[in-house]
Structures are given as C-alpha cells and as structure tokens.
Amino acid sequence: MKKGVIRPGHIQLRVLDLQAALRHYVDLLGLIEMGRDEQGRVYLKGWTEIDRFSVVLRQADEPGMDFLGFKVVDDATLGRLGEELAAFGCQVENLPAGELKGCGRRIRFEAPSGHFFELFAEKEQTGKWGVSEVNPEAWPRGLQGMKATRFDHCLLYGVELPETLRLFTEVLGFSLAEQVLDDAGRRVAQFLTVGMKAHDVAFIEHPEKGRFHHASFFLETWEDVLRAADLISMSDTSLDIGPTRHGLTHGKTIYFFDPSGNRNEVFCGGDYHYPDHPPVTWTADQLGKAIFYHDRQLNERFLTALT
C-alpha cells in the first residue's frame, strides 16, 4: 500500500574542497549550479529535473553523505509519516522551511542502518533547465561534460538490514525489488523502490553503520556511458570500474570518484518494478556476476572504498 512517498528529492554530500568538487560535479558530470546559501552550501540539479535542486554540496573535514531526502505528496502526509516514524522508534527532527534554500519544512530521521533520511512535501520548482514547458526542444544547448539528466539513487552500507527493510516497506511504502541472499538464506543486500525504477535506494550489510557507497546519476544511452568513460580519462578522474553491466538491475554503468573520495555512478537502462512483482533474487555464490555481469568477479575497491 502506498504511504505517500513519491520519489527521491535530494542528497547532501560532504566534500573536502568545494571548488574542486564544483569542477567535478558541474564541469565533468554536467550538473547545473542553481545557487548558494549563507552556510556556503552549493545547490545543483540535472537538466531534466523539475525541482530547484537535487544535490547539495557542503564543505567539511571528511567526505560522505549527510542525508538523503524523499518527496511526499502533501504536508498532511508529511505530518502523518512523522508520527508513524516516531511510533516505529525513530528519532524525528523537524527542520523549518528555508533551512534548505527553496525547500519547505522537512522531517529528518535515522534509519536502523545508521543513515539519515528526510521527507519533505514542498520545494520550489524551476522546471527543466534550458527547455520550455511548452513545445519543448529535445535537449538544451550549453550542457557540459557527461550531461547528467537527474540524480537517481544511492547505495548505502550499514547495519540492521531487516529493520531497515521493515521501516522502508511498512512505514514509507517502498517495495523490495531485488535482493542478495547468502548460503543460509539471509538477506545481505536489498534494493528498494518507491515507483517503477529498479531502485531508489539500496542497502548492503556492513559491520559499520551509516557508510556511503555511491550516488548515481542517469544518462540516456549506452553511448553516453562510453562517452562518460572518455571524459573520465580526459580529466584524469579516479576510475573505480567500468564501463560494464550489472547483473543486479541490469543497468549499464561506470563508477568513479570525486576529488574528495565520494564514489559516483553514471548509468543507463535497467529493469523496472511494479508493486505486485516478486523481488528478483541473486545468491551470494553468484555475487561477482550480480555486481559485474561481464567480469563475473568482484573488485575489492568497489566493496571496501566507502565514505
């Protein structure tokens, strides 16, 4: 049953050097700067996104993710979900409208995995960048770098996957789209969606709570992913792995790092999921193929480089 969460809304990332981060996220990834605030945070978006921003960069002493936000249908739903989160056992923090520039009031909570999430109902909508809402052209002129279309999802490493799954499915209305089971049938990875996408957020079991693996951005075609690989080499950006295909979700992908060590992904394609679909299951003995379908073996850095 739908609980009122619509879609991903934004992510706030910590970076060590804001100017270096902007060269990466704007010049290389192709996100568009939409403003700054009195705290020095920078607001970015992909060109197809309607909201004012989807990525917030904050300069800090260590990299990683501060929080991931999801949009809900209206303010009444926001209030109701705040009560349900508290009843579940989450500590809920209320943040006033305007604390994020152009965003309405938010409620923030910590999941059992150790990650912080937010819900909001209102955010200023500025429309697609460079494209009219009436008789729109196919794409805008002036895009840079990889021409990322949107912020798509996150992969997070942490503890207490069963309780995190229960929170996201029973309270927030997500569906389990894909999973990895170990030899004992215990779930060690879970891919959750609130719509038709292969996943909006995913979790992998890890002994430390609250770790960040990657933020992912959508490209339109496999040719765009290959072009992204060229740009990674042209700019001497640190490459993790790819271009390749996943077994999980079947997306075509490449992974690389921002100057602070936060991992990014750009990808295209991928499976879809309706709420009545059973979860797709991979077994741990096939984990190499599940993650890197072509190589069929794991990249140790992919599993251990976290922020």
Task: Characterize the structure shown.
One of its GO terms (molecular function) is ferrous iron binding. By secondary structure, the protein is an alpha/beta fold. The chain folds into two domains: 3-118, 2,3-Dihydroxybiphenyl 1,2-Dioxygenase, domain 1; 151-302, 2,3-Dihydroxybiphenyl 1,2-Dioxygenase, domain 1, CATH 3.10.180. The protein contains six helices and 17 strands. The protein has helices at residues 18-28, 75-88, 161-171, 222-234, 287-291, 300-304, and strands at 5-15, 32-36, 42-45, 55-59, 64-72, 92-95, 106-110, 116-120, 150-158, 175-181, 187-193, 201-205, 211-218, 239-245, 251-257, 263-269, 280-283. The strands form two sheets. Strands 14-15-16-13-9-12-11-10-17 form a nine-stranded mixed β-sheet. A hairpin with a 5-residue loop joins strand 10 and strand 11. The two termini are 34 Å apart.
Query: Into how many domains do the coordinates divide?
Result: 2
* Count of β-strands: 17
Q: Using the coordinates above, name the CATH class of the largest domain.
A: Alpha Beta
**Count of helical regions:** 6
Helix content: 10-25%
Taking the alpha carbons of the first and last residues, their distance comes to 34 Å
Order of strands side by side in the largest beta sheet?
14-15-16-13-9-12-11-10-17
Summarize the biggest pleated sheet: 9 strands, mixed
CATH topology of the largest domain: 2,3-Dihydroxybiphenyl 1,2-Dioxygenase, domain 1
Structural class: alpha/beta
| Beta-strand content estimate | 35-45%
The residue ranges in which pLDDT falls below 50 over 5 or more consecutive positions are: none
CATH architecture descriptor name of the largest domain: Roll
Mean pLDDT: 94
Corresponding CATH superfamily of the largest domain: 2,3-Dihydroxybiphenyl 1,2-Dioxygenase, domain 1
Principal-axis shape equals: globular
What string gives the helices and strands in order? EHEEEEHEEEEHEEEEHEEEEHH
Rg measurement, Å? 18 Å
Catalytic activity: catechol + O2 = (2Z,4E)-2-hydroxy-6-oxohexa-2,4-dienoate + H(+)
Cofactor: Fe(2+)
GO molecular function: catechol 2,3-dioxygenase activity; ferrous iron binding
EC number: 1.13.11.2
